[in-house]
Amino acid sequence: MTDRRLWHFASTLSALLLLLPVGTQAQNGKKERTLTPVTAERLLKGTNETTSWLMYGGNYENWRFSPLTDVDRKNVKKLQVEWIFQTGIPGQLEAAPIVADGIMYLPASYNHLYALDAVTGEPLWKYDHPLPDDLRIC
Length: 138
Hints:
- The protein is of the alpha+beta class.
- The chain has a domain at 1-21 and 34-64 and 91-129: Thrombin, subunit H, CATH 2.40.10.
- The protein has helices at residues 3-19, 40-45; strands at 98-100, 103-108, 112-117, 123-128.
- It has a four-stranded antiparallel beta sheet with strand order 1-2-3-4, with no helix packed on it.
- It is globular, with a radius of gyration of 16 Å.
C-alpha cells in the first residue's frame, strides 16, 4: 500500500472513529460498550494510554513500543493464541490493526474494514467500501 493510500485509509478510519457514538445500547443480549471519541489529545498520548493502540506504530514517532510490563522474559513462553479471525478475503492484511476502547479495527484487502471485540475476536461489524470496476490493483 502506498504512503498516500495508507494516509487516506488512516484518515478515513480516524474520521469513522470520531463519529462513533459515545455509547452503544445493549441489544439481543450483547455487551454494552462505552466508546470515547478518538481526539487529538488521545492520539498525542500515544502508548501512554495502555488500554488502546490508537495508531500505526503506537504513537506519532512510530516507536512500536508498549510500556506494559505484563509480559516479561519469565512468562513470555506461556503466551498462547487466544483467538483467530479469518476475513475470507483473498490476499494478506495490508495494515496494522488499531485498538480503541476494547474494539480492534482491522483493515483488510480491497477496502474492507472489520471491527472485532479485542478480547474474544467476535466480529462486531464490517464495512466494505465500493471500489470502481476499472481500478487496477498492484
